[in-house]
Amino acid sequence: MSKLKMPSGELRVATAGIDLIDEALISQQVIPTSTHWRPPSEPGLASILSNIALSSAVRVANQAALERLTSARPHLIGITTALEAVGLETGCFLHAGPPIQWQNTSGPLRGALIGAALLEGVADSPEDAMGKFERGEFHMEPCHHRGAVGPMAGVVSSSMPMSIIEDSVTGRRAYCTLNEGLGKVLRYGAYSTEVLERLRWIEKVLAPVLHETIYASEPIDLYAMVGEALQMGDECHNRNRAGTSLFLRAIGPLLIESKHASSTVAECFRFITGNDHFFLNLMMPAAKVAADAARNIPGSTMIVAMARNGTEFGIQLSGTGDEWFTGPCGVPQGLLFPGFTAEDANPDIGDSTITETVGVGGFAMASAPAIVKFVGGTSDLALDSSRRMYDITIGEHPLFRLPALDFRGTPVGIDAALVVRRNQLPVVNTGIAGREAGVGQVGAGLVDPPVKCFVDAVARFAELNKTLIQSA
User: pLDDT digit string (tens) for 158-172?
Assistant: First the structure.
């Protein structure tokens, strides 16, 4: 019998997804090359996922979708009302996330809808508003269905001002309301007299002043601001201090030179300066107009929308039209404000995950290590979050660079098939709304989207593209 020959020289070992083997090797002074691997989220889709991965047609479609998304150049061109922007008539209300019925709404969304009804004068009291919603006298529709996005509850009514964001490449437009600030605000479900008075001031004072200022200037290049803000410590979802400062820098001279009374100008300037999240409501429609440019590409598994209504988390794929794939919203885990406990937190809510959809937010946390003071975790977590997202995305954004990762482009173009195949969910950082209407924000943190949406989306994609992926 021949003797077994033992390997000589340096021993090199590669491992895949089993930490126990890594630990055993390290204990014996052998440093393995570890591959991050997990079984698919849904083993029953293994053959479908393999066919998708091998399909050159899917690969070409995804590259086309990515090219459209990253080629967008969103500019702020003005401010108008929701009636003019998206044809939102009285008695019709937009909301964040996928479609939902009144009886299934969470506290923050319900409170925001009540407040909007009071703001428009179509209800005399909170009880009257609730009764009309319960009887179906008001119409509810997702912001995404009208080319718009809304933070947290995302409620929009006809008189509310909305920023107009236009893609200079395609001419496509998207819209979003102006940010109210923090504390007790409509987007967190508050509808007190103070909240409604602030909204009326935004409509009557801030919006006209900003529109005249913006209209008097060249269109404002928002992606140029995003690229710079990422290098100044923002991730452009939960940290927007640099973005808001850059916006003020852009409009400041024109604001000062306007014909408005100095006291009015100072009031507007003070409001924006005191609201670090003001830029978020510009980032979101900028992302929306970019993601919408990548819609309806046959054969593409790229995600073009992620959104939450406080009850369900929904996604849309480029290659499956306007169909929503949903699952139950998780409760964000992070840092709660003093006086609140985990029981006070509402499940995840808002359209602001459109930022992650285009490669910022949780995908750009490496640029904003200070964000962990707001959402919890460590600086290493911020770096690792961005690194892991390269595993489930199609490419890197040419404009959005991460200094901490040697100025590598942010991971962009979430591939639903990769999410399921690699069992790796998108990173989402978010504010936490109070469970009860009117409480407001109770903290901020990280949340995992439900894997169900991605599994269902891939299954539906396979159903619609049998010939395409079976020929792989």
Answer: 999 999 999 999 999
Report pLDDT digits (tens) over 240-267.
Answer: 999 999 999 999 999 988 888 999 999 9
Q: What six digits make up the tokens of 43?
A: 């083993």
Which residue segments constitute the domains of the chain, with CATH numbers given? 46-70+293-470 (3.90.1700.10), 74-285 (3.90.1710.10)
Beta-bridged to residue 327, according to DSSP, are: 313
Phi, psi of 77 (to 5 degrees): -115, -10
What residue type is 325 in one-letter code?
F
Residue whose tokens read 């285009």: 358
The C-alpha atoms of residue 72 and residue 399 are separated, in whole angstroms, by 11
What is the sign of the dihedral through the CA atoms of 221, 223, 228 and 234? positive
62 three-state secondary structure: helix
Cα–Cα distance list, 105 to 182, 312, 359, 461 (Å)? 22, 10, 29, 29
Span 106-154, pLDDT tens digits? 999 999 999 999 999 999 999 999 999 999 999 999 999 999 999 999 9
Kindly report the pTM of this predicted structure.
0.91
